[in-house]
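Next up, a chain.

===
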Amino acid sequence: MPRRKRVCPAGYPVHIVQRGNNRQICFASDADMAAFVNWLTKAAQLYGIAIHAWVLMTNHVHLLVTPSSDTAVSKTMQYLGRYYVRYFNFRYRRTGTLFDGRFKSSLVQVDRYLLACQRYIELNPIRAGLVNDPGDYVWSSYRAHALGTSARMWTPHPMYLALGKNDGERCWTYRNTFSEFLNTDVIQDIRRSLNTGLVFGNERFRNEVEQLTGQSQRLGKRGPKPSGNVK
């Protein structure tokens, strides 16, 4: 059976994961992460994507973005695959692919689901045991959302902006949402959505996306099981 066609329609938030090939390291230093952020910022401006949340880990990256066109996400990822991979291969005197084939993606419903997805992304360093406080990890969007740290590539989502009347209120409210870890069921739902390419949202949202794309958002109506599942 054919693989599920990826859909990233304009105006819909999408959660993206790109892993290193065979889960190998794709960021070996802070300089590598800074280089990736530089090219990601350029790609976002060039192709019109709003970057709401991110985390760069040693062997993968999570992004939460809203594209301004149906092709913006694919063009952005192709741009990164071209320029960052060239940089990485030259720096470490290697050849061949760096990333693991097709990136994984899942459309995210805005109300009730988007901020949960942001928290999932920004809690990656905690789950990996790298830090005890998400604010201690430099390469994520948590510091922008919770501490007011500036980030050139960041476009705060309206759901985040609605958390308070000013920056201080929004940061305080956002920090408080991290007083407890995400519910296990929410984590499983996010991972299932990424691994299947289905939406992260409720039944109404699934129906909306099905009508928009003409593609089923139900388990059992898709291509072969994907490899390299998100954990």
In short: Residues 222-227 have pLDDT under 50 and may be disordered. The chain has one domain: 14-203. The CA atoms of residues 119 and 178 lie 8 Å apart.
